[in-house]
Amino acid sequence: MRNPRTGWLLLSPTLIVLIIFGFLPFLYVLFVGFNEWNIFAAEDGMRFNGLDNFRRLVFDDDFLNSVGLTAKFAVFAIASEVVLGFLLAQMLTRNFPGKSLFRIIHTFPLMVAPIAVGAIWRLLVIPGFGPVPFLLDRWFDIEYLIGTYPDQALLTSVIMDVWHWTPFVTLTMLAGLSSIPKEPVEQAKVDGANRFQVFWYVTLPFLRPVLLTTIFIRIMDAIRTVDEVSMLAGGGPGTRFTGIYIWRVVFPRTDYGYGSSISIITLYLTIVLCWLLFIGISGQGKDEVE
Amino acid sequence: MEERPDNAKRDGFLPFYTNAFDRVFISAVILIGIHLLWLRFMEPALPIEAATVISLAIGFVVVRRG
Fold it and tell me: Is the terminal CB of chain A with fewer CB neighbours within 10 Å at N or C?
């Protein structure tokens, strides 16, 4: 059973699928990233242009702004989702009347397709039609126009993302909380630890792998957000995230080479961010290991 | 010999224990990062080949001593 050939044989179908649908397209995008390729250009086909796409990218204010905006969006959305998800998971570990019904209703947003989520929120916030601008104006005298004010558009995108993805975080946290053994928690309580100390020194270390996985998944999702936000604000001010910028470069402008180079750099930034988080949260540092 | 959490991992100058893949990965990350920063800030003064030489040197040190 421990024969390595058997292991590779069992892994081979997955590896073949991964290579065909993951690795080869990645290599192709990497190749296109070093070429100038625009189907409406005077010269037909691809033309190798070395690092020119990357040279253009590091001076492209629209791209750099989109990275900053995406980072802002990801930080606010993920932090809110993790905190809310944890609190809801804690609540769901206890018994209360209507718990089953709450759990079903709570997971409804997960079943809705992102494009439909964007459409629902668009209907809620569209000026002159949606209830949100109407009520904000009537109750608080706030002029709510997501097409005009970038901060409002960003905030609405964050709230929409939190609404959509908090149930996912709750479910993963609930799974993590359910797997924590009761003994260490009870021992800590017997030793006189208060609720915060139990959370900080017992619950959180046990939850670390779940927390890490959840944050990774949410970071990757947040960075590639396109459909929801595009439907909500049409990529207007405050919502020109990296995904939307790539879409604009690749599709309406048909600048495939430049779009590929932006995609590669976005992937690079995602990997670096996840790796740094992994080192920070997973306790791989020498101080923590020793 | 210092005690290590995993025999396959090495205790180098990096602030965490690394195996060979980790060190190659870190070198690749540094290589791309240096090239991008070079394109943005240094290229008018020095050609991009200088960034390649510097990042390969750093990568070599990370792989051997990291």
Answer: N
